[in-house]
């Protein structure tokens, strides 16, 4: 099957903790490594990687082949832990010290997921990232080269808590009256001398 090469304005966001976890897994592995991850849809065309996982795997120096029984075990464990396996929409892997690209083995792995859509990410030791989104319903389509960005937006609830903290702890002092040195009292900064002004009174409002 030849995938269609369409460019989209889609953005893949990743939570900072998940990005650090990804880079740590990749950096700690001697060669290739692969895993899955949780993804949620934020709005149309925007996906957020929330977490990543690894499981038992055998990787050659140049190839990662996903062990379907290890994936099945992982999904079963998720269900028994009361988690929803339908949010597992990310397949990620590292090419170690090789360039990032989609090999025919990678394509076969992606097409092997029995999902409506799948987000895939390939990275390496040099911090290169390549993301693609494949949808399989109602037809197979691939969005290549989707940019990856660390999600730095704060949750509205956290922002509200911080706003209240600033409101209660931080008081701003505002100068009420200003008198300029040099006898110029008409409110203009003197132009013929050093611009020094003296604050006579502060307000605590
Ligand atoms: Zn690959």
Automatic annotation (TrEMBL):
It comes from the Bacteria. This is JAB domain-containing protein. It comes from Candidatus Collierbacteria bacterium GW2011_GWA2_44_99.
